[in-house]
Amino acid sequence: MTCFTDHRDLSRATATGYLFLLLLFSSFINIWSSCSNGSCQVVDSCSLSTDCGPGLFCGNCPALGKTQPFCIRGQATIPTSVIGGLPFNKYSWLVTHNSFSIVDAPALPGVQRFTFYNQEDTVTNQLKNGVRGLMLDMYDFNGDIWLCHSFRGQCFNFTAFKPAINTLREVEAFLSKNPSEIVTIIIEDYVHTPKGLTKLFKNAGLDKYWFPVSKMPKKGEDWPTVTEMVKANHRLLVFTSVASKEEEEGIAYQWKYLLENEAGDPGVKRGSCPNRKESQPFNSKTASLFLMNYFPTYPIEDEACKEHSAPLADMIRTCYKATGSMMPNFLAVNFYLRSDGGGVFYDLDSMNGQRLCGCNTIAACQAGAPFGSCKNISMPTPSPMTNSVGSFSGPVQFSTSTSTVYHPNHFIIALFLFPWIISLFF
């Protein structure tokens, strides 16, 4: 009996050893056969950002139950690089809401910042990734004009980010290095200094790119072509929320030229696309540009990947119908890099494909071909998630590592749910 027991134990040990080797070999085969070194495509499993192809990063989307890392798109297709020469209003462009309000941006010395955050990488990197519109809140502060995410029209040291000229110099550097690109700046304007914005843009070296108000269409007609704008070096469009500054400083009044849906929670409510109160009605014939706001009132980083998936595509269709078949020229979002795969970039490709060539994506467009002549393009489908690496291993062009995702907005949102706490600051 003792010999039998020893033999049985030995057999079990041997079987366990074989099983271990089999699992090890199977794991080796899986690793060997999986993509890596830049060969992984959208929604393929990944371990590092270097596993993913150009324009992709390795992330996840826990809000949709996708905790395993996979390749996510992080860069836009510039539509003019596929089909150029059309009027500016024939294209769709990506806009970042509160472009300056960046997670981990340094606060003033000795001050704990207390405000919301809307983006995760620098304005320079946003532009490199294909963002072509910036929403900037400008205030008088510290004897200068600052970018600030604040309350009641006043900037405080705990809501301030940086002098506006710093960000505008990033824009100037980008335009200087990319002579065929066009950038739009939309200012939420709390600047009361006489000619303050005029001096600011001149000091930043951006006046040489300024698109003059006198050349902006005022009766709903087409804008100049992108070719004409580049040739004239009119590659910077600037809009202000203050009507009087169009006459005083030659800065275009936003709602004279842009139709707009409601921002905040009304703009993300499923099945509804209400007209913004300040904007002209959607059926107006005097504005030929449409800005679609798509971001909740209280921004949360880890919810953005969910917002930028199927709900965004649904809202684009809803607003298209609400505006009488007007495709958004500008799509404004928070945390633009986050999605369950293609996100805002695929939606932009879809919008530009439909408006430029009648195809479901701009990748199917063929320059010079008749409208509706589309290449056969297969869209990627999700593949099994097998890796167990942590979340966000280094998104495209991020200025800092986000392997540990920081969520400052949760605390601030909780405070805003209790107005009496906020009133203590004022």
TrEMBL record:
Pfam family, one: PI-PLC_cat
UniProtKB keywords: Membrane, Transmembrane, Transmembrane helix
Membrane-spanning intervals of the chain: 12-32
SUPFAM superfamilies, alphabetized: PLC-like phosphodiesterases
Cross-referenced InterPro entries: PI-PLC_domain, PLC-like_Pdiesterase_TIM-brl
Domain of life: Eukaryota
GO MF term list: phosphoric diester hydrolase activity
Single biological process term from Gene Ontology: lipid metabolic process
Protein name listed in UniProt: Phosphatidylinositol-specific phospholipase C X domain-containing protein
Record organism: Gossypium darwinii
